[in-house]
Amino acid sequence: MTTTITICDTCKRDDWDSNASHMTDGEALALLIENAAAGIDAVTTRRHSCLMGCSGGCNITLQAKGKMAYTLGRFEPTAEAAQGIVEYAAKHAGAQNGVVPFRDWPVAIKGHFVTRHPPLPE
């Protein structure tokens, strides 16, 4: 089963400076996640403008059919964050119900969970 990471590409952290960067923080994180996920069959990525988590940007969601879905936020656009997100997404893809035991969470995602949503009924 494949897990999809949806990345908010319009996220701007509080300290974002439009004069200093040609990309939003969300665009920067999206690029890092896309690169980290390249070649991982169980993980796909997509961008979406505004996940409505502006007070806690940068935001992403993890979703797969029939599995728990998660929203994570408050990331900095770093390679470490991107790698942790992709690593967790791969574990989510491998978990039957999408629930990954806490002991298996990458350090980079701990403290970033915002919500979880049960799968829609079939």
Please supply descriptive tags for the structure shown above.
122 residues, alpha+beta, 2 helices, 20% strand
Produce the secondary structure layout.
Blueprint: E1 3-8, H1 25-37, E2 43-48, E3 60-63, E4 69-72, H2 79-94, E5 113-117
Helix pairs in contact: 1-2
In the CATH classification, which architecture applies? 3-Layer(aba) Sandwich
Distance between the termini: 16 Å
* The CATH H-level homologous superfamily: Glutaredoxin
> H/E series, N to C?
EHEEEHE
Structural class: alpha+beta
Q: What percentage of amino acids are in beta strands?
A: 15-25%
- Provide the number of structural domains: 1
Shape: globular
Question: Any idea what the radius of gyration is?
Answer: 14 Å
Main sheet specs: 5 strands, mixed
User: And the CATH topology?
Assistant: Glutaredoxin
Verbal overview:
This protein has a five-stranded mixed sheet with strand order 2-1-3-4-5. The chain has about 120 residues and is α+β, with helices and mostly antiparallel strands. The chain has a single domain (about 5-115), classed as Glutaredoxin, CATH 3.40.30.10. The longest helix has 16 residues, at about 80-95. The protein has helices spanning about 25-35, 80-95; strands at about 5-10, 45-50, 60-65, 70, 115. InterPro entries: DUF1636. Pfam families: DUF1636.
Task: Describe the structure concisely.
Pfam families: DUF1636. This protein is α+β, with helices and mostly antiparallel strands. Helices cover 24% and strands 20% of the residues.
